[in-house]
Design a protein that fits this description.
The complex is a heterodimer. By secondary structure, chain A is mainly beta. Chain A is about 0% helix and about 50% strand. In chain A, strands 2, 4, 5, 6, 9, 10 and 11 form a 7-stranded mixed beta sheet that branches. In chain B, a hairpin with a 2-residue loop joins strand 9 and strand 10. By secondary structure, chain B is mainly β. Classes of the chains: A mainly beta, B mainly beta.
Amino acid sequence: EAAVTQSPRNKVAVTGGKVTLSCNQTNNHNNMYWYRQDTGHGLRLIHYSYGAGSTEKGDIPDGYKASRPSQENFSLILELATPSQTSVYFCASGDRTANTEVFFGKGTRLTVV
Amino acid sequence: GEQVEQRPPHLSVREGDSAVITCTYTDPNSYYFFWYKQEPGASLQLLMKVFSSTEINEGQGFTVLLNKKDKRLSLNLTAAHPGDSAAYFCAVSAGTGNYKYVFGAGTRLKVIA
């Protein structure tokens, strides 16, 4: 079964601090994605990756960086966290063929105070 | 880029009633369409995927209709039960080498016993 694991599951960060959200997948999928979920907006794409070493900007990349050091791992980095980045973040992985669905992790609830 | 509008944002029905959720999209090159279900506090799970124009797919207790001419995708729960209470999201993928998935804002469905 497809498995995407996110850590931490909950995080409280201070404004101006650095936050790293981690994601690991054991599906051997090429594509990985970071989304944030806010009420009224659904899921919005922050960054994505086509494979190790690649990162691409999604629809709302400002204030975020991403890192894909290996096929299995994809991190989302908030260098200077702000309260507006308080949200639930989902990592997902998917095969390179577009007719297959993405598989989601359980989410990370981030609160920036 | 692709825009996906999902309606209604909230839906409350009685047990046994039907419920219809609709998504419209803008990019005529969109090729692959998905419905996800998210139970409270949980991740998103694939409900159904559909590809062909004017396709009807049936699952357990629901029907998915795709009309590419009208650029409309719908999810019809035929006889809702309390276990269907969840958030539902449509997702659209353009394919053709671009494996970004654009999500609707979601519909929060409540089924009253």
